[in-house]
Amino acid sequence: INGIYAGRARNSDTRNIRKPKLRIAATTREDFALLPPYCIAQLKPSWSKPGEPERWRANIPKAFPHLHHYCAALHSLRQAQGIYGKDNESVMVRTSMLRSSVLNNIGYMEKQTDPSSKLFPHIYTTKAEAYLMLDQAGEAFEYFNKAIAADRKFTKPYALMADYYAKNNNKKEARKILEEGLKHSPKSKQLNRRLDKLPKK
C-alpha cells in the first residue's frame, strides 16, 4: 500500500494489527545503533570497527566481560520508554521490562563488577531512570546521587533530576540542581540550556 494511508487498517479496525515484538536484548544493527559503541564491540565484535573490541576491553577492563547485562538493560529501558499507553496491558508490559530486564541486569552489574569502574555513573543513572518510570522517585534520586558521587562532572543525573523538579513545578529546586552541576561542568550544554529555560530569580 502506498501513500499517506500506508500501514493503517481498513475501516479503522486495529484489533488485528500485530504489535511490534519487544526484545530484551539488542539483536539487529538498528538496535545497536541506539546503544553505546561498547555494546556492539562486546556483543557483535564482527560488526564493530576494526580494533574497537580491543580498545573497549582496555578502556573498561573491569566491566567489559559483563557488558551484555548493561547493554540489555539499556535496550530494555529504551523499549519501555517507547510504550506510551496507560491501558492495563501497556502498563504491565512496561513494568515487566523495567523490573525483569533493566533492574535485574543492573543488579547483576552491581554485584559482579568493581564499583570503581568508570562505567558506574552511567549504570547508576540508568537504574535511576527505570525507577522514575516506575514512579519510585525516592529510589531514583538515591541512584542519581550515587552517580554524582561516582563522578561529579557527569552531567546527565543533574539534568534528569532538574527535569523531574521542573515537571513537578519546583523550579527553585531545579535551578539549585543545575547550578550545582555547573559548578563541576560549567560548559555543559545540557545543563546551561535547561537553566536558561527556567524563570529568572
What does this structure look like?
The protein is an all-alpha fold. The protein is built from ten helices and no strands. Helix 4 (67-81) runs antiparallel to helix 5 and helix 7 packs antiparallel against helix 8 (156-167). The protein is globular, with a radius of gyration of 19 Å.
Write the layout of secondary structure elements.
Elements: H1 29-33, H2 37-43, H3 52-59, H4 67-81, H5 88-112, H6 120-133, H7 137-150, H8 156-167, H9 171-184, H10 189-197
Residues in β-strands, percent: under 5%
The residue-averaged pLDDT reads 88
Q: What is the H/E order?
A: HHHHHHHHHH
Low-confidence stretches: 1-20
User: End-to-end distance, in Å?
Assistant: 55 Å
Shape: globular
Q: Sheet with the most strands? A: none
**Total beta strands:** 0
Total of DSSP H or I helical runs spanning 4+ residues: 10
| Structural class by SSE content | mainly alpha
The radius of gyration is: 19 Å
The helical percent reads 55-70%
Summary, kept brief:
With 201 residues, the chain is mostly helical. It is built from 10 helices and no strands.
Fill in the keyword field for this structure.
single chain; 201 residues; mainly alpha; 10 helices; 61% helix; 0% strand; disordered N terminus
